[in-house]
Amino acid sequence: MKADNLVQNNTPADAEANLDSSDYVFIDLRKADDYKAGHIKGAIAADMDACKGGDFQNGVNTMKAALKDATGSESGGGKKLVLICYSGKTYAQAGTNVFSSSARTWTTCSPSKAA
To answer: CA 75 → CA 38, 39, 60, 103, distances in Å?
Structure first.
């Protein structure tokens, strides 16, 4: 992990204020079936279930593929990345572990941060 990585915790209101910004990519880390059942408009799917269960390389591959589909770049093309999960714990940790293996900056948003 590089020292210039930065995690910012934001409230849902902070995230909502940037939903339409082309500077942001919202990444839904939940299970694929839950994403299909409903997700934030414009969010991309990057199921971290296997990564959460210990298959780190699967998480890396899943994230790279999702970002490449969304931005044309496996690293997100310089966009600000907002991670969406269930509660800000295990799926968020799996996602941040994936990003810790690269020089990326990301933002997490969890329901527990709601005002």
So the answer is: 25, 22, 10, 9
